[in-house]
Amino acid sequence: MRRSIFSLFFRLAILLLMTSAAGILAFAKDRDPVIIIPGIMGSELVNKENRDEVVWFSVARSKTDDIRLPITSDPLASRDDLSAGDILRSIKLGLVPRIDIYKGLIDSLTSNGYHEETWNSPSKDGGNAGIYVFAYDWRLDNVHNAKLLIQQVESVKLQLKEPDLKFDVIAHSMGGLIARYSAMYGIADLPPGNQKPVPTWAGDRHFRKIVLLGTPNEGSPLALEGFINGESFGPIAFNLPFVRNVSRFDVFTMPAIYELLPAPGTFTLMGEDLQQVDVDLYDPKVWTEYGWDPVSDPKFVKAFPTASERKAAPEFFAKMLQRAKRFHQALNAASGVSPKVEFDLVGAECKDTVAGAALLRSEKSGDWITRFSVPDQKKKDGDSRGTAALRAAIYAPGDGVVSTYSLQGNGRLNSMFASTKFFCDAHNRLAANPEVQAYILGLLNGVDATSAKEEMPRN
């Protein structure tokens, strides 16, 4: 009797173990592979011939290469000797502790059952909870990189012989624009001339879920500031003079940064009388009028000593402004096709974020000065109304780089998003934030604790 009872319990235990193991395997099998797309400046740039030489990110400038692209009459054909290396996992700046960029995000996935794969030679388990990092040359046109993403995805599916495989995507900052375009248009380029873009959603068959992390869906005025003052947009929020800085002339050569300018009709520019100034950011004449155009800078000749580059510069500039305008129009275009891919927004709303600019006249030269910051202090006479009005026009809630309104497409894209979640952290820290990582992991695995949409009216 005892033996039969023991045998019964033993068989039940084995059955439970087998059922549990099968459940674990089924859970693991149900997890899609994940693509991580970094933001601008979030991928290494290496020398094509000597891939051990990392040009970006490196504090010291390369002796033979720079991140500036050559200026040509065809901006999309502009190339140099650099190509994408790995995603930036972490960086080290002197005595400062190592800064996590995307390593923590990757580690959080691997500690929860995912594993890293390579695009060119995925393992037999590459379609099951694999991690593919999409490092790309972030200087180039976003449409170019969106098409490259689709090509990489199709190549993996072909190698794995899984034509119906779908990927989840975690796209940070500008990477979200690449992900959106690839889902909306596949490998199609922007339509020529004034032809109206119509999303076909040709690429969404490759994706199940796209998480947009701090994505500037309506661009950012900080891109304009970069053209005026030079700016580091990436994982470090400062320039290092005489060592590693990004000048306005570097910015001028990079198609992707044009496509980060505020979307048409979304830029707030305040005049000295605190009245809004209507400007077309995509008209080169406006840039000349307000002193924004790097070509008009007296230092431009010294920065570009080659006559051919100086000659091509005005045409390059005009073409890139128009292409950037059409890029935004394509992303905001409506379609009768209902996408199958699910979009989720993750961002921050606790930091003052530049959402506009102010025009002032220089008392000495009479030239226009464009301000992207306003000191939080009262005037000597105690009247702070003007300062308060400027701050209200220039700043909005956000993550310090991307405003919540840009993240949400100013409400126009809300119908696209399955969920919206805000945390309190800086733009460049979002991917490294453990709470954000845990939340995204929950989204990927269908464990969404707070899926309700959070909307904020603009003051």
Descriptive notes:
The protein is of the alpha/beta class. It has one domain: 3-Layer(aba) Sandwich (Rossmann fold). It is built from 13 helices and 17 strands. It has a seven-stranded parallel sheet with strand order 7-8-1-9-10-12-17, sandwiched between helices. It has a three-stranded antiparallel sheet with strand order 3-2-4, with no helix packed on it. Strand 9 (167-172), helix 4 and strand 10 (207-213) form a beta-alpha-beta unit. The radius of gyration is 24 Å and the shape is globular. The relative contact order is 0.13.
Give a topology summary.
Elements: H1 2-29, E1 34-37, E2 43-47, E3 54-56, E4 82-87, E5 90-93, E6 96-100, H2 103-110, E7 115-116, E8 130-133, H3 142-160, E9 167-172, H4 174-185, E10 207-213, H5 221-229, H6 248-252, H7 255-258, E11 268-270, H8 284-289, H9 300-303, H10 307-331, E12 342-348, E13 351-354, E14 356-361, E15 368-371, H11 385-394, E16 395-398, H12 404-407, E17 417-423, H13 434-444
Helix pairs in contact: 2-13, 3-4
Order of helices and strands: HEEEEEEHEEHEHEHHHEHHHEEEEHEHEH
User: Which band does the percent of strand residues land in?
Assistant: 15-25%
* Total number of strands: 17
Q: Percent helix among the residues? A: 25-40%
Distance between the termini: 79 Å
CATH superfamily annotation: Alpha/Beta hydrolase fold, catalytic domain
Q: What structural class is derived from the secondary structure elements?
A: alpha/beta
CATH class: Alpha Beta
Poorly predicted ranges (pLDDT <50, ≥5 residues)?
1-28, 234-244, 378-383, 449-459
pLDDT average, as an integer? 86
What is the domain total for the residues? 1
Shape: globular
Tell me the Rg in angstroms.
24 Å
CATH topology: Rossmann fold
Strand order, largest beta sheet: 7-8-1-9-10-12-17
